[in-house]
């Protein structure tokens, strides 16, 4: 019997082959897998997504610039503060005494400078007298010399010796007066406010006054206080952190995106993200900056290089930080440093991929309720 005749006699077999649900399901699954793989590859370039987003911000350790005992505390853990608010105060008494001592030292310096100025004036006067005496001794010596030349017997040799001695003594007095004046001027230095002794005393006073101001520790900006666990009577060392200040000035999302996500990414592109702190909501932002590098394994000079090991049959993707800027007013009172975020970047160019990405980020936002 021929094959054609068998087929005609068994139509059910032919029907079952053409309508085999397993084969159809297999074809559908293969098509879906192919579509998914195509979407996955394209979405990585056109609408990159990551769930490795972290909220970052500016945190500043709060520490006094001078040492002392804490006498007043105006804030507590998680307190909200404004720029210039007083956080805590140190014992001011040692610093008040230091200011008073510096003021007394400045007054004493002014007196010393005044006395040295008077010494310079006196030395200047003495030099003038010595020069006048030298001028008189020179004239007297010249007269004696002239008389002896005209009439050698008119004066004795004693008169001549006396004139020479007076002239030499006058020269020595001028030299001594000039030395005394130079010494007095060196001790005084520059007169007025440029005097070195006065400036040193003035700087010491200003430092003492500044240290007194530093006994009051102020908030550097608007923000909140973290990790504050000291109490009255605690001795604070200068430069020792007493609390951590979280500034409200700037927050951003640091999204860890894979290396192949960056090929079409540019600063200023549209971003949508959702935060665990606000489940069910999607917010808009922009790409502020894209990281230029990340830390990788380094080779020490005294060691051999250690090759990195793969954990699977595909190489682990390298991730780079992409900074996402918040829009003004977005959750300004709810943002917390270290909060998690899901991020999608729209690099533009495909309506279908954008639509799928918008659906995915919204689905992720609702899944935040379950986290």
TrEMBL record:
Residues 120-187 form a coiled coil. Keywords: Coiled coil, Membrane, Transmembrane, Transmembrane helix. GO terms for cellular component: membrane. It is a single-pass membrane protein. SUPFAM superfamilies: HlyD-like secretion proteins. It is found in: Membrane. Its main location: membrane. The keyword Nucleus does not apply. The chain crosses the membrane at residues 25-42. The keyword Membrane applies. This is Multidrug resistance protein MdtA-like barrel-sandwich hybrid domain-containing protein. Residues 62-246 form the Multidrug resistance protein MdtA-like barrel-sandwich hybrid domain. It comes from the Bacteria.
């Amino acid at each position: 019997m021929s094959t054609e005749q068998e087929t005609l006699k068994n139509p059910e077999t032919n029907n079952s082959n053409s309508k085999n649900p397993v084969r159809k399901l297999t074809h559908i699954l293969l098509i879906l897998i192919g579509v998914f793989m195509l979407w996955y590859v394209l979405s990585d370039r056109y609408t990159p997504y990551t769930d490795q987003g972290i909220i970052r911000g500016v945190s500043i350790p709060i520490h006094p610039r001078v040492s002392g005992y804490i006498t007043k505390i105006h804030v507590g853990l998680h307190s909200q503060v404004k720029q210039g608010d007083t956080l805590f105060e140190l014992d001011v008494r040692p610093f008040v005494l230091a200011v008073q001592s510096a003021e007394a030292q400045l007054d004493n310096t002014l007196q010393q400078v005044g006395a040295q100025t008077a010494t310079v004036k006196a030395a200047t006067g003495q030099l003038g007298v010595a020069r006048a005496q030298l001028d008189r001794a020179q004239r007297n010596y010249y007269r004696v010399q002239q008389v002896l030349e005209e009439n050698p017997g008119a004066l004795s040799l004693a008169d001549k010796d006396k004139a020479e001695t007076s002239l030499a003594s006058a020269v020595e007095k001028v030299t001594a007066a000039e030395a005394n004046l130079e010494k007095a001027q060196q001790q005084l230095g520059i007169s007025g406010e440029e005097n070195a002794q006065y400036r040193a005393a003035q700087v010491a006073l200003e430092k003492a006054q500044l240290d007194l101001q530093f006994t009051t520790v102020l908030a550097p900006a608007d923000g909140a206080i973290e990790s504050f666990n000291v109490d009255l009577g605690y001795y604070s060392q200068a430069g020792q952190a007493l609390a951590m200040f979280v500034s409200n000035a700037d927050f951003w999302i640091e999204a860890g995106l894979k290396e192949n996500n960056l090929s079409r990414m540019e600063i200023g592109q549209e971003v949508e993200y959702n935060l665990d702190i606000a489940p069910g909501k999607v917010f808009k932002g922009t790409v502020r900056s894209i990281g230029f590098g990340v830390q990788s394994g380094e080779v020490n000079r005294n060691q051999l290089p250690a090759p990195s090991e793969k954990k699977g049959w595909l190489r682990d993707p390298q991730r780079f930080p992409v900074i996402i800027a918040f829009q003004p007013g977005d959750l300004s009172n709810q943002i917390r440093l270290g909060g998690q975020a899901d991020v999608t970047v729209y690099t533009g160019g495909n309506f279908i991929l954008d639509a799928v990405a918008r659906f995915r980020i919204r689905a992720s936002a609702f899944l935040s309720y379950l986290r």
